[in-house]
Amino acid sequence: MPHKPLPNPGLPSRKQVLDFIANSDEPAGKREIARAFGLKGQEKIQLKSMLKDMAEEGLIDGNRTAFHRMGGVPKVTVLRVIEIDEGEAIAIPDSWTPDDAVPPPRLRLRALKGRDSALRSGDRVLARTEEAGNGWIAHPMKKLPAAIDQTMGVIEIDGGGKAWLAPVDKRERNSMPVADLGGAEEGQLVLAEPVGRSARSGVKVTTVLGDPLAPRAFSLIAIHKHGIPFAFDPDTIDEAELAAKLPLHAEKREDLRHLPIVAIDPSDARDHDDAIWAEADGVGGFRALIAIADVSYYVRPGSSLDRDARKRGNSVYFPDRVVPMLPEVLSADVCSLRAGEDRAAMACHVEFTAEGKVTSWRFTRAVVRIHEVIVYEEAQRRIDAGEDDPQLTALWAAWRALNAARNARDPLALDLPERRVILDEHGKIKEIALRQSLDAHKVVEDFMITANVAAAKALEAKVAPLVYRIHEPPSREKLVALKDYLATFDKQLSLGQVITPGLFNRILKNIADESEKAVIMEAVLRSQTQAFYGPRNAGHFGLALGSYAHFTSPIRRYSDLLVHRALVDSYGLELPAPKGKLPAHSGLSERDRADLTRVSEAISQTERRAMIAERDTIDRYVAAWLSARVGEVFECRVTGVQRFGLFATIIGLGGDGLVPISVLGDERFNYDEKAQVLEGERSGIKYGMGHRMRLKLAEANPLTGALKFEPEGSTGSRIEARGKPSPLHRKGNHLAGKRGRPGNIRHQGKRK
User: Fold this and answer.
1) Contacts of 208 (CB under 8 A, 6+ apart)
2) What is the distance between the alpha carbons of residues 660 and 643, in angstroms, rounded to a whole number?
3) Fewer CB near the terminus (10 Å): N or C of the chain?
4) Looking at residues 181-209, what average pLDDT do you find?
């Protein structure tokens, strides 16, 4: 409410002005101050001069419209959300003018009510603010139009000397005129923002990122595009160095250094957070140990280390780099289970029968010394060669029991290829291949699943807080769509029965044609729901498990760290408190013990962000690899059908691209959505899911990851889009080690 004017006491003192500004329920500008103190005429002029002096002396900040004390925040102001901390929005003033040495205050935003109330990073809101204790709280009044987004792209100069920005996002089909280069040069990767409301006004360069085709550039594009935190706070680095020096307290841990525990990992593994051991129990069953890095001992709730890890949610893995959840001194050194070195571990002991039924489990904090780190291919070679390796032989024998239990459970079995980008020592692409599926992979996977189930059941037994890994059954809507699609292959899916993973397995098992099987497998995958984290159990449909949690990768997943902390609390595994600045407790924080909902939602979001960023980067590497092969013909398989054309994948490589409808022939094509088919109106030619085609690679754009194909022998007629086309296809691709044509981005569609 407006302030009632005071009896005119003359010009107020500076303290009175500061008190009024601090206690005002509305923006306090020159007019409001004058009205509150009953000032008139010459007094208003004197007030104006006083406010100017107070601003110059650093007592207040703002303008004549609204003042606030220097370093503070206006009572009503525009805030910009910079992060979501377990569902709670953290914001800073959208316009912050103090010296750069003074960081903007961070405000915790209360929930925004009404429709479209969910807040995301980058959102702008009008809010009332108040100081609370040593911090600030904001009460949102309304969400404001989105702030101007920055566009990442490459600077191109046309024949007339005009600069254009070619976006790296394949959804942006047109280049933009550049009004202000900001020191950028042709061919450089930049961030830019609009200079006016009209697209014709162009953009101005705000940040120059460098050579877009240099080694490591593709992952840098993904990091910027998806807002992945990649720099640790100095406090976090200092804490990591301090934590790395913590004593193991080996005398208070279970000593397992005598066991020949092995870690089986990829050849390019950046860290080793799990290792396994097994032996026969003498009565037909097995005893096994799954040793996991004891990250909770080093990363404690309430620390800067924990806040940074929580914000990241998980590590992000690119072909050329990893953006770790934890600083390298922990993730790649102290917490990594290296061969021949004493390491802190959380040990999961399990016993199971010859049929793989787990009969007992227990968890301890232990000290281990890994006997050997073996790559998957080498472990498989030793087994196949029948070499005398007692530990691997025992592991394989125990795994056969676990595998028998897995087969009886009948989890979803989708054998989908995974692309692997191999770089040389200079960061250039050496090879792109599909990952080989070995029994060695299954051995490790089944031991990890066993430990994850044991962790979930151990915490359930204590009725303890638990972050579950949840995978819900497919929705009825998706099942109906899958049923209609399968009917086009004369396959039946009855929705009147209980839907289980085994039901999908039986459908796939009865398909003899490998091409048809692959496309139906992808359709089954698309029918599945997205797995997520949550504190209320809903089972894991894909694995056919009633209770499942992530326990085995705390170096790279915050979910696993939470499970470790819950085990520490529930089973009395706390060790002596460290001396110095690190928090004493290594179990769950009070906040997490009370409610795991917010952190579960937050880490589910960061996981999805990482998956998209990793996939986008692989697409860019594949496009870079193929850019030197534009014009070649490949054996492809149709993986998607839309009104505007086909999506196809190169068989054996996995490069996905668009075949525009305009290049399929000079006739009209009708789209059958249910059958997922394009049919020529005159010729009757049909293009459908799973069809094999020989396609010519017409364009490959490393910066967007987009490919475009044409049928073999096509004349390449096109439907042009509006706007200036990107001239990126004229650039050579030195990232692939050869000169190529990265391709035009005008006609790319969004893959479904």
Assistant:
1) 182, 183, 184, 188, 189, 190
2) 9
3) N
4) 86
